[in-house]
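Exercise 3.2. Students should predict the tertiary structure of the chain below and write it as structure tokens, then compare their answer with the key that follows.

Predict this chain's 3D structure.
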Amino acid sequence: MNGIFRGFKLIVVLAILVGVVGYALGPARMYGYLFSKELVATIADIRSFGGSDSENSKSETFAIELHTDSDEIQIATSCEKVWAVVAKGDCVRVKLYPAAPWTSSDGSWINAKLVNKIKKPK
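Answer key:
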């Protein structure tokens, strides 16, 4: 009977330990979402790299230079093909996700999401 309680205690302690570790590491995986920002900007430059001319290329990456109305310049990367529809001078709403500080890309914006294109006021 004493062995059963000891085994039960071990299971409870391990479950609590797994929960604590999961709780501690959860925000680490969500870093980009926690510190993301959305902004309206003009495409100053956009370039694609790594893809072939075929539309089925899965390795195409875009480098995007954005200029905001407050004269802020943001540079981001993205692997989403939706960026192929924007051109230099287009006004867009974009969501930027920062690279985690413990990665080699610290300080840069990665996985930029094109929320929508915006018509410029005339």
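Discussion points: The CA atoms of residues 55 and 81 lie 9 Å apart. Residues 2-29 form the longest helix (28 residues).
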